[in-house]
Amino acid sequence: MQPHYDCPCKDPSVCQLGGYILQDDGTVRRCEKYFKWKKNQKIIKKLQITLPKQFWNKKFPNFETYNESLKKALEKSKKYATKKLWNKGINLFFLGGYGRGKTHLAAAITRHAIVSNESVVFITGPQLGGEFKEVREKFNKLKDVDLLIIDDLAGELENSFLSQEFFNLINYRYEANKGIILTSNLSKKVLENETIGPRVWDRLQEKSVFIEIKTPESYRKKKRDLLDI
Fold it and tell me: Is the pLDDT of residue 226 over 80?
């Protein structure tokens, strides 16, 4: 008799043999379908742990590019992700008004990094705050991940202690050649002089790429207009 090369259970999620197939000659072999499914499940779990639920489906292919600004933003984001430029200490800034697709692209890069088995932390600006001990512990955990994404940074760094911890974080990652992705609806000028501050800004901009998304209307509104209902 010929050995069975097809997955006998058809659905890897109900496999009772842990990904191995018993063949007619009494030997066993790996079920590649099962291990491919298992790997995909691990990626999904990491995505679900790393990203807020509303961003789980944000990918490069479903990013709508209805004008040149969005096309360029997508192109640069793909290049950053494909070349894993965060491992060269290069930072990426997404700037633009609310609903311009900044977080979608940041989440798509997060997905790419996780699939590539990189360690990633995705955190929002408001989540940076907290009590003294909590902030210090939190920032220590952010130091050594391969890629750090800080989404929707606004006025959180006005607190002097938080500002100092942020500088320590940026300086550490700068010297370790570990990149950061930042998204904000604030302008470069406001970020430099009011939000981040000149000292931290000087560290950041030396190895940073700025993507300013300029669209006449909200990316979210445009996507709603495309819904066929």
Answer: no
User: How far is Cα 39 from Cα 35, in angstroms, rounded to an integer?
Assistant: 6
Query: What residues does 181 pair with on adjacent strands?
Result: 92, 149
Among 169, 211, 158, residue whose Cα is nearest residue 188: 211
Q: Has residue 6 got a pLDDT over 80?
A: no
- Edge-first strand order for the sheet with 120-124 is 120-124, 147-151, 180-184, 91-95, 208-212
Q: What average pLDDT score do residues 172-189 get?
A: 94
Counted domains in the chain: 2
Per residue in 118-156, pLDDT (tens digit) is 999 999 988 988 888 898 999 999 999 999 999 999 877
- Mark whether 37 and 87 lie in a shared domain: no
CATH code, domain carrying 163: 3.40.50.300
